């Protein structure tokens, strides 16, 4: 199978990396976990051995951490850290701008220039180009277009040709992706509008930090299995990174809490 063969390579191209991910993420949920992860580890070891290649130190550490852990879970970012992927493409998974959820939210605001709630092809292309320039890397436009198309294929789970906040958040390490915790507490449109009106206590059309604090406390109380009230300040800081000078409008909060954004 092509994806398994790619694991034998000294350097993996962006297109091959996408094939590998697509092959092992068999349920398409955006993560390798359980049998998917153990299968990947087993076939990685076999492929390297067949090619006469030792596991790299990064691969060895990865195998030690996840090889016998049936509860393990990794995202695209973690996979990119261990596979010998072409350098320029790899930068997208190692960029300093996306090390934390708060940084990610601020980056999202910058590139969702039309506040549509989506990053579309040209916006994504600008984002990737800026990341490369900050790393002092220059690539031609055809290569940049190729990377943009691959990133869209990789993260666009509903195939609508654009990236939603939760889709692009796959660029974050699993442990940093707080949006995963909010996935199961999202509301239908009617319920979300009712909640926004309730917590916008002064009726000025936006939620401020204190109003968000009250909303999150109630959400944590109602969803103890998914949300940890001890992380309240982190949730608040990350969500407020989407605000416009402390004003969190309906459209931005909907990205986190409305299921109809998906």
Automatic annotation (TrEMBL):
Function: Buffers cytosolic calcium. May stimulate a membrane Ca(2+)-ATPase and a 3',5'-cyclic nucleotide phosphodiesterase.
Species whose genome carries this gene: Gopherus evgoodei
GO biological process assignments: locomotory behavior; long-term memory; metanephric collecting duct development; metanephric connecting tubule development; metanephric distal convoluted tubule development; metanephric part of ureteric bud development; regulation of long-term synaptic potentiation; retina layer formation
Keywords: Acetylation, Calcium, Metal-binding, Repeat, Vitamin D
Cellular component aspect of the GO annotation: cytosol; dendritic spine; GABA-ergic synapse; glutamatergic synapse; neuronal cell body; nucleus; terminal bouton
Keyword Transcription regulation: no
Protein name (Swiss-Prot/TrEMBL): Calbindin
Lineage: Eukaryota, Metazoa, Chordata, Craniata, Vertebrata
GO molecular function, one term: calcium ion binding involved in regulation of presynaptic cytosolic calcium ion concentration
